[in-house]
Write a structure and sequence with these properties.
The chain is α+β, with helices and mostly antiparallel strands. About 25% of the residues lie in helices and about 15% in strands. It contains two helices and two strands, in the order ββαα. It starts with 16 loop residues before the first strand and ends with a helix. The chain binds zinc ion.
C-alpha cells in the first residue's frame, strides 16, 4: 500500500496544510518524534496544529484527509440556495 503524506486543504479556511514534526519534551517521551498537521494560514485556528501526536506522517495525513463528504455537500448546497 502506498504511503500517503499529501494533505488536503484546511477544512476551516481552505489554505494549504502541511505535516509538522515535533519532539516530546516530557520525561517519558523526551525527543520522541511526533507528527501533526498545521494550516499555512497564520490567521487560522489550526496554525499551530491539531494537537495530534501521531508516530508517522502517514497516520496524521490519513486522519486529516478523512472528511465527511455528505456534510460538506450539504453545506455547499445551502450556500448555493442562498444565492
Ligand atoms: Zn486553516
Amino acid at each position: 500500500m502506498p504511503k500517503i503524506t499529501k494533505t488536503l486543504h484546511c477544512p476551516f479556511c481552505g489554505s494549504p496544510s502541511k505535516i509538522k514534526e515535533f519532539f516530546g519534551q516530557s520525561d517519558y517521551d523526551y525527543n520522541k518524534t511526533y507528527y501533526d498537521i498545521t494550516c499555512t494560514n497564520v490567521d487560522c485556528y489550526l496554525q499551530d496544529g491539531a494537537d495530534w501526536r501521531f508516530n508517522t506522517p502517514e497516520e496524521a495525513a490519513q486522519l486529516w484527509n478523512k472528511r465527511n463528504i455528505k456534510i460538506e455537500r450539504r453545506e455547499k448546497l445551502k450556500q448555493i440556495e442562498k444565492i
